[in-house]
Amino acid sequence: MAAVEIVSFGYLHDAPPTAHLTIDLREHFRDPHVSPELRYMTAHDEPVRAAVLGTPGITDLVAATAGAVTAFASGPSAETVRVADGCAGGRHRAPTFAFALAELLRADGHQVTVTHRDLHRPVVHR
Question: What are the domain boundaries of the chain?
Fold first, then answer.
């Protein structure tokens, strides 16, 4: 199978990284930032992952993105497939999505690396 690089990021910090697929999670999926009890947590915390993955449609999008990665990987190029997924601050939705996508792709035999560009950054106050 293919090598896959996944980068989660926050649109409020910098431009999206270059990728074959860029997934924008800002408008259609619940933002844990709006919940005071989740705001200062990250995707490393179970309550954040549960809130994001419990949002209707998110697991379907993870599966669809995995299918798109597999389609890219089946092409004649042996290059690494790059996926960038972003949310507002890069601490909740995007890294949770990246973790879930990586898990699914690894189960399908892909070699996956995950980088969280903005997970370490402070909470963006909006």
Answer: 3-116
